[in-house]
Specification:
Elements: E1 6-8, E2 17-23, H1 29-38, H2 61-74, E3 77-81, H3 89-92, E4 99-105, H4 108-118, H5 125-145, E5 150-154, H6 155-160, H7 162-173, H8 179-188, E6 203-208, E7 220-224, E8 226-229, E9 234-237, E10 243-247, E11 257-264, E12 270-277, E13 287-292, E14 295-303, E15 309-314, E16 316-317, E17 320-321, E18 323-329
Parallel strand pairs: 2-3, 2-4, 4-5
Antiparallel strand pairs: 1-5, 6-14, 7-10, 8-9, 10-15, 11-14, 11-18, 12-13, 12-15, 16-17
Helix pairs in contact: 1-8, 4-5
Protein name: Sulfotransferase family protein
InterPro entries: P-loop_NTPase (IPR027417)
Length: 331
Amino acid sequence: MANKHIILGTPSKSEEKTLVIMGAPRGGTSMVAGAFRELGVDLGSRLGENHEDPKFLTKDLDELRERIAVRNAETPAWGWKMPHSLHYIEELLPDIRNPHFVFVFRNMLSTTMSQVNRSKNDTTVENALRFSLRQNVIMAELIEKLDIPMLLINYDRAVESKDEFIQAATDFMNLTVTPEQRQNCRDFIDPETGYKQVSLAYYGVEQVMAENHPDPLKIKRVNRQIAPDKAKGGLVATGDHPAIIFRTTEDNPMPAEFVLKLVNRSQEKSSMKLLFDFDWQFSQNMAYKQKVEPGVSAFKIKTNGGLKRIAVVPEIHDTMSDLILFETLKV
């Protein structure tokens, strides 16, 4: 038993193991998953700020079994985070290699209010409270039934005592971590920030004044399913997924900070989405959305220095992009 967190069973020292992180939605599983990622646990690719592998969103057990088999073949130690795995994890046990389960518990009223505040369906306090209670009961039943290593995380104490939480996590997974990983994990645990990216895929966007950044920066640009049309005086979409992509090259890598300048040719605010790619895969989970004012706008992009590509997805009206004249500038 770890102070403030509980380890049940005997964690394996084997290199081959599978970590599954579960709990009530809005109950702290994203923080716990991100912390394990900072400590070096592979939870998949194309993860967003909720740290969920898109290939584990499905509830189809046959699909999940296939995905587990693929991941077992790819790497000895890996895992996934998905709150709704609680409802079918027992059925997957025969397919999970050396399972190590993490159950996250958070103050139930905090979980309830977070669900209400984040709900798109006007969830009531009563319904959210009832749902959170059911999730906790399911976790308690699984803890009673299962005879495997389990780590019970007290979320509220974890954000107060980061080092003890980190120690419980490293003990449970038998991890050897560097001082840098430990510090990155401490920095990641921030209840005031909410959802956030880990250091390996960090990005931030801030609107700035374009005139404060006059120096051009040459970054390779590729138009995807969008092309200039001189007759129409703008960019015309040629497919269903138009984007302007700026990407690294061996001779000209993406800087850790740069400014993206563009013009909104319409007379109204126009939607823009930025997609960030750190492993040559774009993901809707790693996106920044913004309404762009008419005229010139500029945005400072700040990353960890490992950005491979950034895609600008403009709003399209009558096949024409509202956004034109893209430039990259030095900070």
